[in-house]
Amino acid sequence: MQQKLESPPSPTAFEELATRCGVRRITTVRDELRREAGRTLERPLRQAAAVAVLRNPWLGEGPESDLGPATERIAPLLGKILSDRLVEALGGVGRIEAFGKAALVGLDGELEHAGALIHTPYFGNIVRELLEGTSVLCFADGRAEPGTDLRVPLWHKTHATSRKHYQTMEVHLPDAPRADEICVIAAASDGPRPFPRIGDRSTDRPITTEILEGLLP
Amino acid sequence: MNIRKITTLTEEITSEGGRPVDPPARVVVVAAVIENPWKGQGFVEDLTEGIDAVASDLGAELAPRVMEALGTELEAYGKAAIVGLDGEVEHGSALIHTLKFGNHFRDAAQATTLLPAVEKRAAAGAVFDIPLKHFTDATIRSHHQTLEVRVADAPHPDEILVALAAAAQGRPQQRLAPLSTEA
């Protein structure tokens, strides 16, 4: 007689749901920068990144496959578990000023697989709402071997043109993404770069290629 | 003590070997990047002054942070000192291999064993592995594990990166026979 398969108990947390969707690890990194250029910062700059490493749900499917169903199932969970970790790492959503995102697909996947998990509202809208932002999320994506380092770009969560908030955070991924995996990253910071002093759109004078004229004899 | 940067890394492992890890395994590290207290002094024969100036304060700064990041009972721990290119490995060892540094962590964790350590000299952004062992019995094989760490722009040549690592459990899916079965 065939044994009846027991269905797993209902999930009690988004992390558990994410695990069932193939997430094997969640890594959170927080950098607190206290000194820059030999001076102590009045307010340390804190940056955080949260990384989910998961099985690529589209392996071997080819470029005709519809990425929609798995994206709709997985991306909101990733947005939720990663945003929660950023809020905790930076001490509350009210402290978060800048944000960004990234995805790296392993060597057996398509670039489009990385894009699918971060470039749709199923991820972006969740992160934006949970981090109380309105800006488009700036991003980095690519395909890579495990053990790679990735710079995740950040900009202001409600004023994307705030130049002093343009910054990046470097994330090291020890054993990911394996060939059949994808790393999805959300990042945030609680302030501008240290000692920002390169002006802003409001202070720039009009610059064109005319300024190149006369530089060479 | 001039701390330039403090990096906190939290790993939550929810699956290993294709099987769920429930509850998720939790391993954390807190790394402080400080100015080398012997910077620019040439070969210093007696390191006591620098040790007294830094080691205890550094242990007191890092221990509560690593316990907070772990957020639960500690079962394994370890430490690291990565010395920037202008310093000696002995400078890193001087800071972490003293009771006045390690006891802050041992007391906070109610631990009794020696902290396993990695010490090396390296360029900024070097990858290093911190060894962790059980906090009361270093022969407990299930808890031998390591954590890979990289801090992007540290240590500078005149800096030292000092880190503490903690785990809430042994390796995920650990299933080796205990040492005693091989005696």
Keyword list:
heterodimer, A: 217 residues, alpha+beta, 60s Ribosomal Protein L30, Chain: A, 7 strands, 22% helix, B: 183 residues, seven-stranded mixed beta sheet, 3 helices, 23% helix
Provide an overview of this structure.
The complex is a heterodimer of chains A (217) and B (183). Chain A is an alpha+beta fold and 217 residues long. Chain A has helices at residues 14-20, 68-89, 111-118, 121-130; strands spanning 23-36, 39-55, 98-105, 138-143, 149-156, 167-172, 181-189. In chain A, strands 1, 2, 3, 4, 5, 6 and 7 form a 7-stranded mixed β-sheet that branches. In chain A, a hairpin with a 2-residue loop joins strand 1 and strand 2 (39-55). In chain A, helix 1 (14-20) crosses helix 2 and helix 2 (68-89) packs parallel to helix 4 (121-130). The mean pLDDT of chain A is 95. Chain B has a single domain (3-173), classed as BB2672 (60s Ribosomal Protein L30, Chain: A), CATH 3.30.1330. Chain B is 23% helix and 37% strand. In chain B, strands 1, 2, 3, 4, 5, 6 and 7 form a 7-stranded mixed β-sheet that branches. In chain B, strand 1 and strand 2 (19-35) form a beta hairpin. In chain B, helix 1 packs parallel to helix 3 (99-109). Classes of the chains: A alpha+beta (217), B alpha+beta (183). The A-B interface holds A 15, 18-19, 23-36, 85, 89, 147, 149, 170, 172, 174-175 and B 2-16, 20, 24, 125, 127, 148-153.
Draw up the topology in text:
The complex is a heterodimer of chains A (217) and B (183).
Chain A: H1 14-20, E1 23-36, E2 39-55, H2 68-89, E3 98-105, H3 111-118, H4 121-130, E4 138-143, E5 149-156, E6 167-172, E7 181-189
Parallel strand pairs in A: 3-4
Antiparallel strand pairs in A: 1-2, 2-7, 3-5, 3-7, 5-6
Helix pairs in contact in A: 1-2, 2-4
Chain B: E1 3-16, E2 19-35, H1 48-70, E3 76-83, H2 89-96, H3 99-109, E4 117-121, E5 127-134, E6 145-150, E7 159-167
Parallel strand pairs in B: 3-4
Antiparallel strand pairs in B: 1-2, 2-7, 3-5, 3-7, 5-6
Helix pairs in contact in B: 1-3
